[in-house]
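Try it yourself: sequence plus 1-deoxynojirimycin, in.
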Amino acid sequence: MSSPLIVPKTQSKKQWLDGAVGYEIYVRSFADSTGDGTGDLNGVTDRLDYLKWLGIDIVWLTPFYPSPGHDHGYDVSNYRDVDPSHGTLADAERLIERVHELDLRIIFDIVPNHTSSEHEWFKAAIADPTSPERDFYLFRDPAPNGGPPNNWLSHFGPTAWTRDERSGQYWCHLFLPEQPDLNWRNPAVRDEFDDIYRFWFERGVDGFRIDVAHGLLKHPELPDLPQIKDIAPGAGPMETFFSFDHIYDLDQDDNVEIFERWQDIAAPFDACLLAESGVEDHERLARYVQPGALDLTFFLKPGWMKWNPDKLVAELVGLAKVEPHGIAWVISNHDNARPVSRFGNSDRALAVTTLMWALGGVPFLYQGEELASPNGLIAPGDRHDPISTRNETDEGRDVCRTPMAWTDAFQNGFTTGSPWLRSEPRPVQFTVEGQTADPRSPLHRYRSLIELRKTHPDLWQAELVFSDTGRPDVAAARRGTTFTIANLGSEPASVDLPEGSWHIVFASRVPASDTSPVTGTVTVPAETSVVFATAADT
Ligand code: NOJ
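Structure, out:
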């Protein structure tokens, strides 16, 4: 038996992150207060009481800034305002105020890797190739054959280069042509974003989730990328993108300098910075939150993995050992199939989430995850995601973006009008209303799990000690007066409790009704996670 690995107690860069639980709101699909079919900021404000009741601490809002909407808000044309479809600047200020009245925190989404092609910088860059704004972006001459300057691809297919017909040069975009990448080697771009951060921090926002944080700086020479896999016929854009080794366009070493610069701006406001990073390597990811850099980084891999117990345990426990404080844990967000559908059922999803609770950092739920929502059903003609509307593929992200199901009434209570994304209504048992009334519902299970971080703070504040369970699909972690066993495997697992008398305080599969003391070896059913506490921490 190998010796247990011990990692130190929690020590977030901002104290308010300790023990917190986050919740992602996909603004356009959360709550529509006007009846125009698109969710808005006032809709969020109206529903804050629900989030307070649920017990979450931090609300993250996806972009609501003025945008032509080619990538549903991730193509920003003005970083200092609110798109009319989502409200006004005054609505944003009211929302921040109400959040703070409820003793919650709110973080916005900043999109620094690219702007919209409708942003005034890009318009100036296209209008005049000698303008200072030209160098805000990555314009390059064609290759000798007249084609794109290198072999880079867009995540959304096909090439990462679009030709500016007037100058004959190409601009780089790791996403849509309407999302031109910024040149982060230009100090003027850095200055602009410093100001954007200050603009919102001065209005009280508690932090930012940083879109494509791993993409900011590109290798200065923009070399071709090595291909590492054959591209199967009919492969979708994402699959094609990941057939290359992204050593020159993503995760460049010097990105950390930008993070440090931003931390210097955020720290005086006690604001947090959270990376969206697709980096999978644990050590590379840990650099994002090294001293002086960002507060947190998402680890996105479990959000796109299929059900694979050994690999899930290895990824979660492996990363927690490398970086025990700075990870924002997620299995669900607005870019991936819902975990209930991806993993096969809701018990598996909650079993993984329960393990995340013991790993330090800040776990995040995505709207509807607390209802164990499966993927939404969308007719092919109703798809909106550019991945599916601009490619022949089923890879699209609309399935996880269907409107939040509040009630059993018209449009599940999301809107009084016609929703921007049409999908089959959810039956009552998948709505907030239906699940609030049922004490055994997923909603109550998630609520109990969230509460655990308040009632048993050792879960995040005590030293973390992993035991060797002898099985790759089973993890066991002691933190002070708590002990979590996650059995993701398909067979029951026998695990030795640490010395002393323990009792169950949470079980992912059934409400923990049996609270009688247990000692010695316990058997945890398949695909179930259980949290125990000692008598000292009931
Ligand atoms: C990641 C965002 O989550 C996704 O929705 C968006 O399409 C890309 N970044 C590009 O901004």
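One thing you can check immediately is this: DSSP finds 16 helices and 19 strands in the chain.
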